[in-house]
Design a protein that fits this description.
mainly alpha; 10 helices
């Protein structure tokens, strides 16, 4: 739903909502909510985090905890490439979970999001964006806007007062989280504490 809904919501803005207001009422509710103000940008921001989270969880669920365990009689090299590195889940997720839904949604944009699960997904993406986890991306957006000399196009009035402070507070929080994650990743790489290094200590 996350991938297909993106194809639908990105493609629907040029379509007159009155054309599907009566035939697809839930799609109409989806569009009315997503196209209000800058909600589409908020949805895309939250959606990206959800995609990364789901792919990470699927990959973790598919990898064997013990590399010495026999998996369908596969050679160690095949298990390492397809299961430990995650190539099998990457191919599986891309083909079945992402590309298939995107292709279907691009051909049936109105039908695809005509259900309440799509609305639930939309609100979930909004909640993720509201949490501020991804707000460091907005800082990059502002930096690129200043560097290029082109203003950021928005459908909402400029942020002022509490809204302004709350927005930039979440940007700082997001930068702190990003910095912590980067530090943990670098320490793990330098100390050989990655999952591959732990499972396969013979690999330099």
């Amino acid at each position: 739903m996350i991938e297909g809904q993106q194809a639908s919501l990105v493609g629907l803005p040029p379509v007159d909502p009155d054309l599907y207001k009566d035939s697809h009422p839930i799609t109409y509710k989806n569009a009315a909510l997503a196209f209000k103000g800058d909600n589409l940008d908020r949805y895309l921001m939250g959606r990206q985090f959800m995609v990364l989270l789901i792919v990470f969880v699927i990959n973790q669920c598919s990898s064997p905890l013990d590399p010495k365990v026999d998996v369908l009689g596969l050679p160690d090299g095949v298990k390492f490439v397809f299961l430990d590195i995650g190539l099998a889940m990457i191919v599986f997720t891309c083909i079945l979970g992402q590309l298939t839904t995107q292709v279907n949604a691009s051909h049936m944009m109105i039908d695809y999001v005509n259900n309440y699960f799509a609305i639930f997904t939309l609100y979930t993406c909004f909640a993720v964006e509201f949490s501020g986890i991804m707000h460091s991306s907005y800082l990059i957006q502002n930096i690129l806007s200043a560097a290029s000399g082109k203003p950021i196009i928005s459908n909402e009035p400029p942020k002022e007062g509490f809204t302004f402070a709350f927005f930039w507070g979440r940007v700082l929080m997001s930068l702190a989280i990003l910095g912590f994650c980067l530090a943990v990743t670098l320490v793990a790489l330098l100390n050989g504490q990655t999952s591959v290094a732990v499972k396969y200590p013979a690999i330099p």
